[in-house]
Amino acid sequence: MTSDEMIRTLEFMGKKARRASAALAVLPPDAKSGCLIAMADALLARNKEIAAANEKDIAAARANGMDAAKIDRLMLSDARIAAMADGLRQVAGQNDPVGRVLSENIRPNGLKITKISVPFGVIGIIYEARPNVTADAAGICIKAGNAVILRGGKEAFHSNSMIAAILNDSAAKCGLPDGVVQLIPWTEREAVKYMLKMDKYIDLVIPRGGEGLIRTVVAEATMPVLKHYKGVCHLFVDARCDMDKAVNIIVNAKCSRPAVCNALETLLIDRSILPEFAPAIASALQAKGVELRGDAEFCSLVPGAVKAVEEDYSAEYLALILAVKTVEDVDAAVEHINLYGSRHSDGIISTIPENIAYFTGNVDSSTVYVNASTRFTDGGEFGMGAEIGISTDKLHARGPMGADELTTYKYIVYGDGQVR
């Protein structure tokens, strides 16, 4: 396909999405929820078609030497297809985010100014090899009254195409215009370049993937971008804490799914408990195959630990590798996190109330944990059903983003002849 043909096709998709978004914006809440439930039912009814498409992607990934962790993220088992459907049902059952009265104000001249939530319109989502994002993104966008244009990674092209087609077909059967859910039908990078210039049709773009993808989108997009570059997540083990709980929390945060953005990447340990705690946590982590990269104090207590370098403390490994640093106290832990972190998810393991208060008040991250794993930073775990992504921005949304975060607002001003 030539560049001109690609641009014309994208323009056509943009026009369809704009028309669909106008219909969605005024669709009653019950109708939106019913459509989402119909989509969930369709995914289950056609799960064999989805599995067959996914098998094509898995076979290609193996032939191309993709590593096991990435293949796991790409794979759609019956359980994961059921989870996609369940996510749509959860979103359907949530309160409608559109039309909420955010504030009301009656001015001295009698004007009544009402601020209400409204959809963005058309949302573009660019993502890599996780085909479940196709269903999650579509569901949340529709709940918030938005049409969506998707551009998935080439690794999941067959899976994404099948899921998007099923969802758009279901929407059409519910009476919605064609174009509610669209997937860009090419894997060439040139398509992304053109998509990012479609600010006439796309109101907001959300990239989900590696840091390189996200920085490219930010650099080239002519519309607003919601993003997080990477997840350099920390846990700080304070001078007083339940050490058994600390070990369990850390092992979960690092090992349960090391290739995701809410996995632990750096462990900070208060110097006063290092001699007791370092061997215990090292034993638990090394039993799980974790490579430990620590400072001199930590390495002196842990056989097999590797000396860390400066770059380790800002690294997002997405693997069974953990940086470890000894810190003097909670102040030093906060200073380290705010210097090296990515404002994603960071936590303290402590039984000292004043230290907990200091940590939660001073760590500048989208999600701050007390005595819990960072792995809970997730739309499903936060009760959103599914999520559109996790934002480390401060405008317009922060943290896990559900349907509420895919609305903006407008003012409606009621008068009775007032003039200025």
Coarse morphology = globular
The counted number of beta strands is 16
Q: What is the topology, as strand order, of the major beta sheet?
A: 10-9-11-8-7-12-13
Q: How helical, in percent, are the residues?
A: 40-55%
SSE series: HHHHHEEEHEHEHEHEHEHEHEEHEHEEEE
The share of residues in extended strands comes to 15-25%
Mean pLDDT: 95
Structural class determined from secondary elements = alpha/beta
How many helical stretches? 14
What is the radius of gyration computed over CA atoms, rounded to a whole number of angstroms? Answer: 24 Å
Work out the oligomeric state of the chains in this entry: single chain
Through-space gap between termini: 56 Å
Question: Low-confidence stretches at least 5 residues in length (pLDDT < 50)?
Answer: none
Query: Sheet with the most strands?
Result: 7 strands, parallel
Write the layout of secondary structure elements.
Layout: H1 3-25, H2 29-45, H3 47-63, H4 68-74, H5 78-92, E1 101-106, E2 112-119, E3 122-127, H6 132-143, E4 147-151, H7 157-173, E5 181-183, H8 189-195, E6 204-208, H9 211-220, E7 233-237, H10 243-255, E8 264-270, H11 274-286, E9 291-294, H12 296-301, E10 306-307, E11 321-327, H13 330-340, E12 345-349, H14 353-362, E13 367-370, E14 389-391, E15 399-401, E16 407-414
Parallel strand pairs: 3-4, 3-6, 4-5, 7-8, 7-12, 8-11, 9-10, 9-11, 12-13
Antiparallel strand pairs: 1-2, 2-16, 14-15
